[in-house]
């Protein structure tokens, strides 16, 4: 039975994660990581705000808050008869499909790149939200890739700690989130 496949609801926080099929690589070089980040910005920013992310060779983690139904309907007025949860899922699907097609074309491969469906965990409390941010940012250490999470380049923590402008994540937004949020 498939786990974690319930619809994504407006105005809720989710830990989104997935890995390559059979735990195989999904990122092969620096350009792949940057392209995935670019796709997150272009495909997901219309339906979510991203608060943390970490991309590793064979998997990724993203903490998002789904935008309000009103915000999503304003961005997609031509989809006013479609359920908002389906619009949200379609944007994630578009991102994963775009990335897979680019990787397949570049590396002369065919077929799926990611396990299906992508996983999601609803964040229900402020404590869970804080723990998820720490978990996501500590992933390079957990997997023995980097002994200092702040030095891992493909994480929102790297941008935040090094004062690099990240088009996906705002330091002020994370501070406000940690100070006030209660989850979904």
What is the CATH homology-level superfamily? Transposase IS200-like
User: Approximately what portion of the residues adopt beta-strand conformation?
Assistant: 15-25%
Number of DSSP helices?
Answer: 6
Helix content: 40-55%
List how many beta strands DSSP finds: 4
User: How are strands sequenced across the largest beta sheet?
Assistant: 2-3-1-4
Order of helices and strands: EHEEHHEHHH
CATH fold category name: Alpha-Beta Plaits
Count of folded domains: 1
**CATH level-1 class:** Alpha Beta
Structural class: alpha+beta
Mean pLDDT: 90
Domain Transposase IS200-like: 9-139
Organism: Chryseobacterium nepalense
InterPro entries: Transposase_17, Transposase_17_sf
Protein name: Transposase
Descriptive report:
It is a single chain. By secondary structure, this protein is an alpha+beta fold. The chain has one domain: Alpha-Beta Plaits, CATH 3.30.70.1290. α1 packs antiparallel against α3. It is globular. The mean pLDDT is 90.
Q: Which secondary structure elements does this structure contain, and how are they paired or packed?
A:
Blueprint: E1 13-19, H1 30-44, E2 48-56, E3 59-66, H2 69-75, H3 84-107, E4 119-123, H4 126-142, H5 156-161, H6 171-180
Helix pairs in contact: 1-3
Protein name: Transposase
Organism: Chryseobacterium nepalense
Domain Transposase IS200-like: 9-139
């Amino acid at each position: 039975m498939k786990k974690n496949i319930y619809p994504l609801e407006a105005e809720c926080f989710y830990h989104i994660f997935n890995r390559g099929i059979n735990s195989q690589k999904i990122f092969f070089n620096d350009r792949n990581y940057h392209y995935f980040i670019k796709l997150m910005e272009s495909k997901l920013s219309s339906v979510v705000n991203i608060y943390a992310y970490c991309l590793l060779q064979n998997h990724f983690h993203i903490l998002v808050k789904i935008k309000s139904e009103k915000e999503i309907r304003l961005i997609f007025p031509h989809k006013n008869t479609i359920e908002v949860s389906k619009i949200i899922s379609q944007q994630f699907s578009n991102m994963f499909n775009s990335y897979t097609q680019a990787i397949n074309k570049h590396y002369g491969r065919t077929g799926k790149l990611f396990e299906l469906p992508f996983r999601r965990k609803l964040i229900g409390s402020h404590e869970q939200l804080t723990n998820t941010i720490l978990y996501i940012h500590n992933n390079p250490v957990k997997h023995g890739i980097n002994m200092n999470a702040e030095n891992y380049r493909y994480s929102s923590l790297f941008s935040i700690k090094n004062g690099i402008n990240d088009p996906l994540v705002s330091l002020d937004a994370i501070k406000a989130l940690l100070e006030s949020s209660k989850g979904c």
